[in-house]
Amino acid sequence: MNLVLLLPEDLISSDRARLTGRRLQHVREVHRAGVGDDLTVGLLGGKMGRGRVLRLDDEALELALVLDQEPPPKLPLTLVIALTRPKVLNRVVAAASSLGAARIVLLNAWKVEKAYWSSPKLKEANLREHLILGLEQAKDTVLPELRLARFFRPFVEDELPSLLRGGTGLVAHPGTGGAAPKVLVAPFTLAIGPEGGWIEAEVQSLLKAGLQPLDLGPRILRVETALAALVGRLF
Amino acid sequence: MNLVLLLPEDLISSDRARLTGRRLQHVREVHRAGVGDDLTVGLLGGKMGRGRVLRLDDEALELALVLDQEPPPKLPLTLVIALTRPKVLNRVVAAASSLGAARIVLLNAWKVEKAYWSSPKLKEANLREHLILGLEQAKDTVLPELRLARFFRPFVEDELPSLLRGGTGLVAHPGTGGAAPKVLVAPFTLAIGPEGGWIEAEVQSLLKAGLQPLDLGPRILRVETALAALVGRLF
Q1: Which residues of chain B does A72 touch, with a Cβ-Cβ cutoff of 8 Å?
Q2: pLDDT exceeds cutoff 80 at B178
Q3: FRET label pair with B91: which of A57, B2, B175, B221, CA 20 to 30 Å apart?
Q4: Which CATH number does the domain housing residue A42 bear?
């Protein structure tokens, strides 16, 4: 937690916050802060700054706030990620959030097991928690937009073309031989397939929607590794 | 497991292998292969190719091998990573291996807790297992060199300069304002600090050894996210 993210309900006045639970525990045990110390803080959806510790005990952390900095700009990036195994979903969501993507779409694909869509990990509260963990990691305050696209075809045919909005769309797909386009125009859309890859018909649909194939080379990377590598390449 | 990695002791003749344990279970339960199916296989340190399933039951997987492809080339890259918390070490090691780094150095730093060096995760067998998981993920057969540098100063002062060998060395450090150098000459050395960052004296030592500062921007990324983003940017 490189930034303590404050929720509106944490504020007890315009420049005071009181925290309990996970964040209280983290500040005590990991930051090992004491009264008088300054912490990096930010208000969800708002400004960042510092919070001076006024009280820190078993019950609560109280902070005097000076919020005078803008959060870092979001990347003009939509990540379209085939829904991952529940076991890795939290990590992927937090990584995408920490990288600064403006929008994340979790998409169905042929090789996404149906059962994944029933996972409790997909509940809004869980997804939001891991988006927030990504913001706390990266020192950001602005949640990315997160959408679940349970059906491949209507999303790709009806919505994806307008998301591209004259920018650059890429679909990671091994063996296509596609190099990153020389001219990269924002906004960016990156589509990353499931563990078994996109099937050919899906690749064709994505290309028809306006994405360009991108071959990352012979190595097959985990989703969270691939998306960080792609973001590192583009930005 | 995108490639079934065979160890020398798995070979029962020059073109036959018999597997048990984790890999047998994975091929049965995840690949759901049957007799007659072809699997992508590779021999540790050697060639890759395919293995046709001759037998697959509770006891063993037997494969007829055709090993006729070279593994992908390693990246000319040394990753110098401040030793992470044990909890994330396995993941970082596997990610570094999957990305294709030729050499990984786990280095001490001021903000690395001493106890991390006593973790059972640092045992050779555990590190090797996670390097192998990275190879199986990425379809590679060649283990990177992995070194533990328990002492910062002798490594950085005496060994790091010769590792650089006329190539490009970068140290990721927020707030330096350093952009990636325009001219990138291989081999590459990337140094990634601990969760709390390098202390200033460490940055100075790394710069003196020949590394250049690289500012990745305002976002603080987890080690495995940062290293994938850096590799994506450089290669």
Answers
A1: 217-219
A2: no
A3: B175
A4: 2.40.240.20
